[in-house]
Fold:
Amino acid sequence: MKSVADQSNSTGEGRDRLSRRSFLRGSLGAAGGAAALAAALSPLRMLDTEDYTVEKFLQKHYKEMSPGDMDSVLDRIRGEVEKRYAIRPELRDIKAQDGVEFVYALHLGRCIGCRRCVHACVQENNQSRSPEIQYIRVLEMPKGSIDVEQGRHDYDRPTVPDPDHYYMPVQCHQCANPPCVKVCPIEATWQEQDGIVVIDYDWCIGCRYCEAACPYWARRFNFTEPKIAREELNPNMAYLSNRPRKQGVMEKCHFCLQRTRAGQMPACLEVCPVGARKFGNILDPESEVSQILKNKHVFVLKQEVGTLPRFFYYFDEDYPRNTFNKPLPVLPGGSHG
Amino acid sequence: MGETPKHRDEHDQRSVPAQRSWAAYCIGPVFFALAAWFLWGPAIVELPIESTPKVNAAQLTTAPRREILGNPPTIEIGGFKRTCMDCHQMFPPRDDPPVALAQHKHIVLNHGINKQCRNCHDSKDRNLLVLRGGETITYDQVETLCAKCHGPTFRDWEHGAHGRTNGYWDASRGTVRRLRCTECHDPHNPRVPAMDPLAPLPGPHTLRMGESHAEGESGASHAEHRDPLRRAIHKYIADERKRAESKPEKSEKVEYYKGEDSE
Structure:
């Protein structure tokens, strides 16, 4: 027994001594570890240190900012935009108006799928041109059903509309019961008094829970630094809407908040050549949208998921001279062309 | 003696790490090689971010589909603006049965069963329109005339369900511009023609970033090229595209409505 103890002692002492082998192994490991650490940190080389200021780090949540805080933040963002795009933007923070709740209505029988709304939106709201980010998807769907599974947004035809299809633009529905807001872990997105669901791009951490929660695929993620040509930047900006975004934040349709809160129509409506899009204040009983909801057949997309959208689709029932020559197929589900 | 087997077990367990497989020695170097490759590896592709195919600014106009000639309709002849009556006052109004036009031959009337000029145009004052009972209205009240036949459509237009409204939704802050019938429909041929589509762009697709027609152009510059995941996605998309292109697609004849006479 004694001899065994001696043996173990002697081997223990042997390990404590720095042998050539263990030195080499240790230094190789240390050098490799350092290299791995450097590699892991290498994306930091691409950081622009001016983007990470103390001021920005300490910026408060939108709802907690005082008017003074907001002014300084707006100034900072103006400076950033000017530095990057050489344009001094008219950046404002426009608050929701009392007695206003926005509602959108879209005439499915009118929409011809020309995608003008998609591109007017991109231009108005400073979406990334590369990679492309578009808020509106125009679904081309076979007539006779509202099966979005059959909808295609990448149709490519020499002319639209196609007589066998109808077109259904989908964008953020500004739900009254928004699942995207519920899942946000940090309240970077919320619903405003006028019904618009907004995002504070400076608060968003890019977890993309909201994108997954949205049943309409209305939210978009900036996977890379969004790129917009200088001459294409729209200088009419609002803090909660179309100011330039950063890589790693979510964005989505906000009913052109910078326009609509100033009384104007959204950009997608302005370019619609057929007048399929209708926008207005639902709290005003004389507004177009109020009248449409009162007088026309309206429906919402995916009513069964309980999101209570503020975006309504409508159509003319039994319209005597529909847009297309062929009579619409009469199907059990009802037609709507 | 009873302790010996246990002793041996402990000894065996301790000796297991000493018999590492060759794979264990490979993991480290492979890891470091990968790290070095990420750090110093060649910039294989600049993630070729293409700019959106240019949308023609004229296609995104907010202007009405048709330009109306004003009230009363005015055209320029020899540098002077002329209304209908500038000429028609020289001719006596005709009440005889409709005859083939000697003038205005460019106007082809394709308005359903409404086939007579003087159903809408006043025979005495050509700057005015005429209703069914002989009552005259000006050209900026044209919807009243249209409503005589298109009642439900007029009702929808009044409510806002039919037609375009541009400008401001809030009348207290700007002009609400409700377009009239003739700003979209040609009264002589009221069916709205099919639009030229925009350059058809694919819809939003997050994995499509970097998909490019400009694959040959590599000016490896910045952040994008170091991401192997993106490179893999990029390659996958390119392969898919190649495969799709090699597959001959049957050409589809697209028909769209051409107006009533075409059938």
